[in-house]
């Protein structure tokens, strides 16, 4: 059924002819196109397709541009290598896998760091589920002049693939310190026997039972005839432990008080805020990102009731809408997300 004719829209004779021709309007065969792609660049292939099209000359200017753009996307693929940055990584994930970074746009990422007051020489406490995007962005901004305390729940840190893609300076990457939230329960307790040891993620065991077990497993998998030992995971673990700050150093940072608190999590923001807010120094900035306004609205109401603890509580939404700008055809992109997320900002006063 032709809905266009029912609506009173009469297509032009040229459009009718092109529709009836189907694939007969292209003189080049698939074999010819493959041969051209092997011996010439994509731009020449597109020009050859346009020249061999029997209907190209009868198209309108807009239809010609659309035809050339569609053929270029198919036959003239170009790759541009860009220096990685937090904004580019955020945009790349937003286009291909937004759920991995909680749909965090580049502009929202920049606003999150600004409201948190991230700058060189500060101690920033971060709790995020954005695949390392927020953590890496903070490390990129301070450039090794400060500390990024990246908290996590469970027995091992989450993946920070985004931070690894940013090509951070070694000094900047070394400023990131992962810590389990469970260590905050003993942050004000002095433990001379273990505070001098490197910060560990799992339950601390002075007898090094887990490491000894790895040694035994490595010996079992080593053939008796081999004179050279297999690569030892224990050596790598020892190296990683040596590069980490001590447990006592971490406690001193937290006891001193952090300058910024940044939260971007899928977990309950109330629980995370209740756990981390006591370790923020007076005058420190708070920035919380969430894709759900309901969770932040409830947190906003709760913090407003605590005027003795925090001030300047604000709930912000930033709009970023891409538009198509063409003569007579300018409009917002119809496939953009309706809302990119919300940021709650505040300042601790006591």
UniProtKB/TrEMBL annotation:
One of its GO terms (cellular component) is tRNA (m1A) methyltransferase complex. It comes from Compsopogon caeruleus. It is found in: Nucleus. GO terms for biological process: tRNA methylation. Residues 210-235 have a biased composition (Basic and acidic residues). Belongs to the TRM6/GCD10 family. Gene3D superfamilies: Vaccinia Virus protein VP39. Residues 1-23, 210-236 are annotated as: Disordered. Keywords: Nucleus, tRNA processing. Pfam families: Gcd10p. This is tRNA (adenine(58)-N(1))-methyltransferase non-catalytic subunit TRM6. InterPro entries: SAM-dependent_MTases_sf, TRM6.
């Amino acid at each position: 059924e032709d809905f266009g004719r029912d609506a009173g829209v009469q297509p032009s004779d040229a459009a009718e002819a092109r529709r009836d021709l189907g694939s007969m309007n292209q003189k080049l065969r698939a074999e010819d196109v493959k041969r051209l792609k092997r011996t010439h660049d994509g731009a020449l292939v597109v020009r050859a397709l346009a020249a061999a099209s029997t209907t190209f000359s009868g198209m309108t200017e807009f239809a010609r541009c659309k035809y050339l753009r569609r053929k270029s996307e198919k036959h003239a693929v170009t790759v541009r290598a860009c220096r990685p940055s937090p904004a580019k990584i955020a945009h790349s994930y937003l286009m291909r896998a937004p759920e991995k970074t909680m749909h965090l746009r580049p502009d929202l990422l920049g606003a999150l760091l600004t409201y948190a007051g991230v700058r060189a020489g500060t101690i920033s406490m971060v709790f995020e589920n954005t695949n390392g995007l927020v953590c890496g962005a903070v490390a990129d901004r301070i450039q090794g002049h400060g500390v990024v305390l990246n908290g996590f729940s469970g027995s091992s840190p989450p993946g920070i693939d985004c931070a690894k893609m940013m090509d951070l300076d070694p000094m900047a990457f070394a400023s990131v310190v992962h810590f389990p939230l469970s260590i905050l329960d003993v942050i004000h307790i002095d433990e001379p026997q273990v505070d001098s040891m490197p910060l560990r993620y799992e339950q601390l065991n002075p007898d090094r039972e887990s490491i000894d077990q790895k040694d035994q497993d490595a010996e079992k998998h080593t053939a008796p005839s081999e004179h050279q030992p297999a690569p030892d995971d224990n050596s790598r673990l020892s190296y990683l432990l040596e590069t980490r700050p001590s447990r006592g150093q971490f406690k001193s940072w937290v006891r001193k008080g952090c300058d910024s608190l940044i939260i971007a999590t899928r977990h309950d923001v109330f629980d995370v805020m209740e756990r981390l807010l006591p370790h923020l120094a007076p005058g420190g900035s708070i920035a919380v990102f969430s894709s759900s306004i309901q969770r932040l609205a409830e947190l906003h109401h709760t913090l407003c009731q605590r005027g003795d603890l925090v001030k300047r509580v604000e709930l912000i939404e930033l709009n970023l809408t891409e538009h198509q700008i063409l003569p007579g055809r300018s409009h917002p992109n119809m496939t953009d997300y309706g809302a990119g997320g919300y940021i709650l900002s505040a300042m601790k006063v006591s």
